[in-house]
Design goal:
- With 244 residues, the chain is of the alpha+beta class.
- Among the domains are: 42 residues, no CATH class; 98 residues, Coagulation Factor XIII, Chain A, domain 1, CATH 2.70.50.60.
- Helices cover 33% and strands 21% of the residues.
- A hairpin with a 5-residue loop joins strand 4 and strand 5.
- The chain is rod-shaped.
- It starts with 11 loop residues before the first helix and ends with a strand.
Length: 244
């Protein structure tokens, strides 16, 4: 039986219609045929967009959490990062201020009392010292202001029946604000030419009785003294008194 040989020629119409590899999409599948897509390529195409959205969501969540809890960032910090606490102003209790004020006042009073002998002769300090010593029961020296004594009368004359002896008499008043000690009185005798012939300072012990020597003269109080002195040679004709 004779054999027939046929030559298969390619279908030129179909061959020409085939696109070159990589230039066109894959041919459509036949009915009922499922086409499997490359998952790697699809995922690679969508990852950048998804990452951007995820980062934005994370930032929004972090911002919301920070607003709700301002200390969340501090708690989330690593433990090796030391957080230096802010120094807080220390409030001093009121009783400490009171104690300090009392200590300062006590120191001031102590200094005042220790120097009272000098300050007592100052008219600005003496009233305060008098009130302080009235409370603390301390003593103050008597006020000393010789210029506050006023001479009321004075006289120097020979003592009758005693040759060469002069009797000196004076009366005076304390015009100071405070009590004063009895004054020392300087008496000087001079001749007709004004030359000093003799002088003497009469202390309270020279003209006061022993029981009066520790007393003082109150403001406005008057007193008097009388003493005998020896007349200097030369014939004294004038005399002068001065409180000291």
């Amino acid at each position: 039986m004779p054999q027939t040989t046929s030559t298969l020629e390619p279908n030129r119409s179909q061959a020409s219609a085939l696109p070159p590899p990589g230039d066109a999409a894959a041919p459509a599948p036949a009915d009922g045929t499922q086409v499997l897509h490359d998952a790697g390529a699809s995922s690679a195409a969508t990852v950048p967009g998804q990452a951007a959205h995820a980062a934005a969501d994370a930032r929004a969540a972090a911002s919301t959490e920070a607003e709700l809890d301002p200390h969340a960032e501090d708690r989330a910090a690593p433990s090796f990062i030391g957080v230096v606490p802010r120094p807080q102003a220390r409030r001093v209790p009121g009783w400490q201020w009171t104690v300090q004020a009392l200590l300062v006042a006590a120191l001031g009073v102590q200094m005042l009392v220790a120097d009272r002998a000098r300050l007592a002769q100052d008219a600005r300090w003496r009233p305060l010292l008098e009130r302080t010593c009235a409370v603390l029961r301390c003593s103050l020296p008597a006020w000393h202001q010789p210029q506050a004594y006023t001479m009321l009368a004075r006289e120097v004359r020979p003592l009758p029946g005693a040759a060469g002896v002069l009797q000196v008499h004076a009366s005076f008043r304390n015009d100071a604000r405070w009590p004063q000690q009895w004054p020392a009185i300087a008496v000087s005798l001079s001749d007709a030419d004004g030359r000093t012939l003799g002088a003497r300072v009469l202390l309270p012990k020279d003209y006061l009785e022993p029981d009066l020597r520790q007393t003082t003269l109150a403001p406005g109080q008057s007193a008097q003294m009388t003493v005998q002195v020896r007349e200097p040679p030369g014939g004294a004709v004038a005399f002068a008194f001065e409180f000291r």
